[in-house]
Amino acid sequence: MGFSTDNLKGFTLALLSSGFIGASFIIKKKGLRKAAAASGVRAGVGGYAYLWEPLWWTGMITMIVGEVANFVAYAFAPAVLVTPLGALSIIVSAVLAHFILKEKLHALGILGCIMCIVGSVVIVIHAPQERAITSVQQIWQMATQTAFLLYVASVIVIVFVLIFHFAPLYGSSNVLIFTAICSLMGSLSVMSVKALGTSLKLTFEGQQYFSLQYNFDGRLLSVYVLPHGLLVSYDIL
Fold it and tell me: Around Cβ 26, how many Cβ atoms within 10 Å?
């Protein structure tokens, strides 16, 4: 995959996002520990003292900054480039936890980090070229294709079955149940974020944002969402 200027911006934002998100987990955990030590009640058993802990809020703000950077990255770079880089936040968390929280990183943890890096590199290097999107109308046409709608419906059905049938029975003993739920819903959220980010980018660049036309018994309703306002026309054919 060739690196254009937009791809480089997205790549850089995705890396920064992983750094911020990975560090946020460590900061929040230190805040939780500090709050539990001061109040004597852990958050896991109903304690809320962490809500008054500045260190916990610092971690939360750090995570928000990382998520915003990740959202913007999707507007510039292909999802197939941005999404794998999110795995690097796991490595940042693992390394910081080892040195800051004194949580020993065992051999399997190190192997997992190496596999994350190798997997991300392989996907980024061999990712297929993404078709350039030049208008939101194009996004709408792709989102309303039969194949995509069937995929969305299938994901929703499978997720509901996993949540309401398999999770109560096997969720506590099999991590794959919740992994599958997160992965399936993540596939939809990634595409949604990519579409929204691209739409905002096109709008800020001054291109037409969206247009739809409906025919009601010989009356044509046209809706145009433009960069500087909304235009609605109602014509009799």
Answer: 21
How far apart CA 130 and CA 70 sit, in angstroms, is: 18
Q: How far is CA 47 from the centre of its chain?
A: 29
How big is the chain, counted in residues?
237
Query: What pLDDT, in 10s, does the model give residues 186-202?
Result: 999 988 888 888 877 77
Q: Is 59 helix (H, G, I), strand (E, B) or coil?
A: helix
Burial class (CB within 10 angstroms; exposed 0-12, middle 13-18, buried 19+) of 164? exposed
Q: In a 3-state reduction of DSSP, which class is residue 235?
A: strand
What type of residue is 82?
V
What's this model's pTM, rounded to 2 decimal places?
0.74
What residues contact residue 38 under an 8 Å CB cut-off, 6+ apart? 49, 53
**pLDDT of 55-105, one tens digit each?**
999 999 999 999 999 999 988 888 888 888 888 898 999 999 999 998 888
Please give the structure tokens belonging to residue 113.
Answer: 């980090």
According to DSSP, the β-strands at 219-226 and 229-236 are antiparallel
